[in-house]
Design a protein that fits this description.
Number of helices: 5
Helix content: over 70%
Strand content: under 5%
Structural class: mainly alpha
Order of helices and strands: HHHHH
InterPro entries: Uncharacterised_YvaD
Keywords: Membrane, Transmembrane, Transmembrane helix
Radius of gyration: 15 Å
Protein name: YvaD family protein
Organism: Paenibacillus montaniterrae
Number of strands: 0
Distance between the termini: 12 Å
Oligomer: single chain
Pfam family, one: DUF5360
Number of domains: 1
Largest sheet: none
């Protein structure tokens, strides 16, 4: 696992945990709320990402820990984590695109979730 992969995964995995803590505690500043934030359907849509995002963090952090312990099990977990990360970003971007809602503060992090796994997945899959 290269340094850039590990750093990207840590940013993503810890970022998801921090995001959900901030959301669930109601700490997100109003200027960063997405359109229709108080709409119950939008709230349900956002909360529906919790299981996916937590699986990203769990598999990613576990993959890093296994890599540090020199366990070969890190690689399949890393591939799963990156695949789930891609899916999370794609789902969010697809939703915003269908709505015709472009907010750079929501599109940038979700675009990162799509792009960075694509940089690492081909090599990881070949090495598996």
């Amino acid at each position: 696992m290269g340094k850039s992969l590990k750093v990207s995964m840590l940013i993503t995995d810890v970022g998801f945990l921090a995001y959900w803590f901030i959301v669930l505690m109601g700490l997100l500043p109003s200027e960063f709320l997405y359109k229709d934030y108080d709409n119950p359907i939008m709230v349900a849509w956002n909360l529906s990402f919790i299981p996916l995002d937590l699986m990203v963090s769990l598999t990613g952090l576990l993959s890093i820990a296994l890599f540090r312990r020199k366990s070969r099990a890190w690689l399949p977990l890393c591939i799963v984590s990156l695949s789930l990360t891609f899916c999370a970003g794609l789902q969010a971007i697809s939703f915003w695109a269908i709505r015709g809602d472009f907010d750079i503060w929501w599109w940038l992090p979700n675009s990162f979730l799509i792009v960075y796994p694509l940089i690492f997945l081909p090599k990881l899959i070949r090495s598996a």
